[in-house]
Design goal:
This protein is of the alpha/beta class and 659 residues long. Helices cover 15% and strands 27% of the residues. It is built from ten helices and 39 strands. The longest helix is centred in the middle third of the chain and has 20 residues.
Length: 659
């Protein structure tokens, strides 16, 4: 069956209308037009990963940033939580794990760009969104242009500036962007006032961003002063329901950036006062595509590797020109001097979060282990790194009929094209649905006729057409383009799809899908890599290596049941289900190396070492893995409560792997 596309209608590209962009001392430039970002005068798609320096230990930063870089990330975004640095008014702490400047310099050493998210309100599942308790107690109108609030915010902005002075892009430093506020929807004047305040202090960056969601007609922002960025998550741990959510549109080729406006029948509709975010003035950019999720107490969804990959791939097919993952690297909350620092219902927020655990089920766990989505996402990250200059100016063109999420029969597909060449995006994946293979799929983008293929159920992939390969033109490939190194173009063999390449003027050429093979075209080579091997492909210092992803054997863990050794200092977390029994074990390990896995089911668990809380978790579908070094040589106890089946848990069989 033939699968054609809607008509391609190129958009008018606006330039010079946004108060964004900047130059570096070396002559580099970073600019934004209405369709894409430009780096040094060329179209560019950045790959952004969220990693909170203050939620990890300083001695780990370099190694963890290297993992991010070799996973294809080139921009590190990070919140600066006010209550982490000024928990007590006037007492600032930018030392140790809170040393912002040292973290930015580590990024610079690895040639990673940085976007700092300076709030004042950040959220990030922190207590009061990061606003210090002392500020909450003042008689000021928070998050407004109230002069008293703005005066306090100015002190905070100035203190951050002192830490990053001289590290901006204009100085030759890595800081290319600043995000103002977060999830702020209703007051453009306040956002503009915060930007102008920051500029007066000395902040000077090419990219000023704000979040654009949580408002039906788009967040009210100062038009042309910011690049609005968007989000997309596989599930919603903040939802009040304990039921499974309906199939999500995030897994369909719906090119609407703001999920809050999905219900509008007219995408050009305006609010009663005429407001509608002018999306056509900005490129489609994301800062919070969720390759993981942070479970809340009442709701424990788990993101599978394919959830993460299919979501990112579909958004790319919908026109996303800045890929931003939240979180890319998990973290561990600090304990405050006066309180715990996590979001909780006790502070008036709708969710209870663990005291310490901010693992977020991320591609890199809070303790540095790589999860399967790391390799899957790297396929897309390398692709946009090497071919983003081609892809960025290409626009989304959908199928003639939109396929909604509840439709498990019809093929979901789209393309991005400039009218001459492009990429076809195919997804046969929907979270919590088992989709069957579709046979005899003949894709027909522009003048190209792909050969008939079977699209496997629960798969997602990208296929190029009319791709320049040196002096040759690749009319189509039924394998996924990964990257280019020298004169070698790397492709991944998609499971269940025979790799076939048609180069203009030559007969079709096939490659086996179970071993690495080259097709020599003279000046260039096409290298086909088996899918599982492609998931281990890394580019390090310009060279391709294949990472050993074998999971090492766990360090032996001895758990001995014991009576309660002390009164837990954080009983409120253990009692979230009410007056339930506490179950205690004493722990020991023979070596500090490697990881241990907690081998039993629970609801809430806390790990104490030498009397201090060092780890906790709300049970979800992922195993609880801990570094043995947390336990080794210490008097360690694990306390947990029995499983609670009244809260939402992932349906069985949906969470563990590549479903």
């Amino acid at each position: 069956m033939e699968y054609g596309f809607s008509e391609y209608k190129p958009s008018e590209i606006l330039r010079g209308h946004l108060n964004l962009g900047g130059k570096s001392p070396s002559g580099g430039s970073l600019d934004v037009n209405s369709l894409y970002l430009e780096r040094d005068g060329k179209p560019w798609i950045g790959v952004m990963g969220e990693y909170h320096f203050s939620r990890d230990s300083r001695e780990r930063w370099r190694g963890e940033l290297e993992k991010m870089k070799y996973g294809g990330v080139n921009i590190v975004s990070t919140y600066i939580f006010w209550n982490y640095h000024e928990e007590i008014e006037g007492e600032y702490d930018f030392t140790g794990d809170r040393d912002l400047r040292a973290f930015v310099l580590e990024c610079a050493a690895l040639n990673l760009d940085v976007i700092i998210r300076i709030g004042p309100w950040c959220h990030g599942e922190t207590r009061y969104g990061g606003l210090p308790d002392w500020l909450m107690e003042k008689p000021v109108k928070l998050r407004t242009n109230d002069p008293e609030y703005m005066a306090i915010a100015e002190k905070w902005y100035r203190r951050i500036f002192e830490e990053v002075r001289g590290l901006f892009y204009k100085d030759g430093g890595p800081i290319v962007g600043v995000q103002i506020e977060n999830e702020f929807t209703h007051d453009a004047e306040h956002l503009l006032a915060l930007k102008r305040l920051a500029q007066r202090i000395g902040y000077d960056v090419p990219l000023w961003t704000v979040t654009g969601w949580n408002a039906t007609y788009g967040a009210r922002i100062p038009v042309d002063e910011f690049l609005p960025v968007f989000s997309g998550y596989a599930d919603a741990p903040w939802a009040e329901t304990s039921e499974e959510l309906p199939p999500s549109k995030h897994f369909t080729f719906l090119p609407i950036r703001n999920e809050t406006s999905w219900w509008l029948s007219d995408p050009m509709a305006t609010d009663t006062d005429g407001w509608r975010m002018p999306y056509e003035r900005y490129p489609f950019a994301t800062c919070e595509l969720g390759p993981g999720l942070q479970p809340t107490y009442h709701r424990r969804p788990t993101v599978s590797p394919m959830d993460a990959y299919a979501l990112a791939l579909v958004k790319l097919g919908c026109g996303n020109n800045l890929m931003g993952s939240y979180m890319y690297h998990g973290g561990t909350n600090k304990l405050g001097k006066l309180s715990t620092l996590q979001e909780s219902r006790a502070t008036g927020y709708p969710n209870d979060l663990p005291i310490l655990n901010y693992d977020f089920q991320a591609p890199i766990s809070q303790y540095g282990e790589k999860r399967p989505q790391y390799g899957l996402l790297n396929l897309l990250h390398l692709f946009v790194q090497d071919f983003g200059d081609m892809l960025a100016p290409m626009e989304h063109v959908g199928s003639p009929e939109y396929v909604p999420p509840e439709d498990g029969e019809n093929l979901r597909y789209a393309m991005r094209t400039d009218g001459k060449s492009g990429f076809v995006f195919v997804s046969r994946y929907q979270r919590h649905m088992e989709l069957a293979d579709i046979e005899n799929v003949e894709l027909r983008p522009l003048d190209v006729r792909f050969p008939s293929i079977t699209v496997p159920g629960n798969s997602a992939f990208v296929l190029p057409f009319n791709l320049p390969l040196g002096s040759e033109t690749l009319k189509y490939a039924t394998a996924q383009l990964i990257c280019r190194v020298g004169n070698i173009y790397y492709f991944a063999a998609i499971p269940g799809v025979e790799p076939v390449y048609l180069v203009d003027g030559r007969p079709p050429m096939s490659a086996p899908s179970d071993k690495v093979t080259d097709i020599d075209l003279g000046g260039v080579r096409i290298r086909t890599v088996p899918w599982k091997m492609a998931l281990t492909l890394r580019r390090i210092n310009g060279e391709i290596v294949y990472e050993d992803v074998t999971v090492p054997t766990d360090t032996p863990l001895t758990l001995t049941p014991c009576p309660q050794p002390f009164e837990p200092p954080y009983m409120e977390e253990l009692r979230l289900a009410g007056d339930v029994p506490l179950i205690w074990h004493k722990l020991s390990v023979p070596t500090p190396g490697g990881f241990v896995t907690v081998p039993f089911d629970f609801d809430v668990a806390q790990l104490y070492a030498d009397g201090a809380l060092i780890a906790d978790k709300f049970a979800d579908a992922l195993p609880w893995r801990l570094p043995a070094e947390l336990i080794y040589g210490k008097t360690s106890y694990l306390v947990h409560t029995p499983p609670n089946y009244k809260v939402y848990h992932e349906p069985k069989g949906c969470a563990s792997g590549a479903n």
